[in-house]
Amino acid sequence: MTAFPAAPDTLTAAATRLGTDPLTVADLLRVACAPGFERWQEQVRRTGGCAAPIHLQGWTHVKDKATGQTLYAYSTEAEPGGRLRVACGNRRASRCPSCAWTYAGDTYHLIRAGLVGDDRKGVTASVRTHPKVFATLTAPSFGPVHNRPASGRCRCGAVHGEGAAELGTPLDPERYDYASAVLWNNHASELWRYFTIYLRRQLAKLAGITQAALRDACRVSFGKVAEFQRRGAVHFHAIVRLDGPGGPDTAPPAWATVELLDTAIRQAAARVRLEVPPAGPFPARILRWGAQVDVRPVGTDDGSELDDAAVAAYVAKYATKAAETTGTVDRRIGELGELDRVPGLPAHTRRLIEACWTLGEHYPGRKLREWAHMLGFRGHFSTKSRRYSTTLGALRQARADYRARQERAERGLPDPDGDPEGSTLVLAHWTYAGHGHTPGESWLAASIARDLRLNREIAREELADLETQGEDSTWNGC
């Protein structure tokens, strides 16, 4: 098909209709009229509509070991642009909604397996009965901010709406402790590490045993996620579970109860203190957890406890986010002047970033400037203890193996699981050839991603309806 240039007014009208700009529409037409457009669409669908796919060039050959015969050959030379596009795998929804959606799904299954068990993920169903809670540890106050208290009226005297722009911003920015706020974010992961140490100590103390005896009787497992409050302070949500000494496969001792775990968490959080030494004009500081510590039991049998699916979904949701709630940028900042080119950057967020920049000069080992876009936080957003559940890597590998088996079956190649002797040999050579989309490709990829997600949601709803009908049929004796 030959591409003809469209008239400027036609491009403008099309851009208005599509909610984009004329240049994007012109590039969209170029892509749609280019040779191999259908194959390009197929590639993008296979990535799930990835917003920034990795481009590869190369080839792969599958040969019969005994005869040397080539059973299958593939090369990117025949692909659109001579490239194969694969998903970027970025967890952040602000960068790639499609890959973030997959990451959230994996996190959901990882967290839920640690709550109710899943033999396919190496966690027995008996873990459902182990004591476990959903705990939230917050940052302390760095100065009063606009909020929506239970009384409804903020300290400023106003009643703020739920989405009011001033929520989380200081009542008096000049007196707000920006330096402590970013230093707290920067040390949050270390505060969590100290918390886990004190938690084990408090559990032993409350149980009336030594720490060595605790290790022989009980294991603490957790899965946690970080979340930014609107004021720009990070806090942690964590599922904390008590197991037997062998992990989730073994029962915890009789004294390991939800009530004991609740008390130990509150006592451990209160004991943590981390000293930040003085540097330049900045005095020494003592960092602690905030006074607000929320601990709620997690269960599935009665209505008094949190539902396991709701907890897993909550953790999965925030595993794909960063500091977007504060209006910050989603990539590293090379120099402060870049902030002048960020539209709509809130004044409070800008001052937190500037505090990171200033403190970075005096605390070079803390890498505050490198993490200024994250308001100083440099930890992982989702983590878990070794024996809590399966791993994200294992889930990704299982998905990759499943797809590989599908492709080998389609091509008539032997399944590796049924071919222990390894009768085939795979030869391959791949090189990196770039990443991302052109403006028109980005618009089309986003459209493909929306369609895929809508189809999945419809399929999920239909499956839920069928399961409900099945339950109703059973109940009616059918």
Description:
With 478 residues, the protein is of the alpha+beta class. The chain has a domain at 124-142 and 177-388. The chain has 11 helices and 11 strands. It has helices at 8-18, 22-33, 37-46, 97-116, 178-207, 211-217, 258-271, 308-319, 347-362, 392-410, 439-475; strands spanning 54-64, 70-75, 84-86, 132-137, 219-228, 234-243, 274-276, 285-287, 293-297, 382-384, 424-435. The strands form 3 sheets. The chain has a 5-stranded antiparallel beta sheet with strand order 9-4-6-5-10, with helices on both faces. Strands 1, 2, 3 and 11 form a 4-stranded antiparallel beta sheet that branches. The chain has a two-stranded antiparallel ribbon with strand order 7-8. Helix 1 crosses helix 2 (22-33), helix 2 packs across helix 11 and helix 4 (97-116) packs antiparallel against helix 8. The longest helix has 37 residues, at 439-475. It is globular. The termini are far apart. It holds the Pfam family RepSA. It comes from Streptomyces radiopugnans. This is Replication initiation protein.
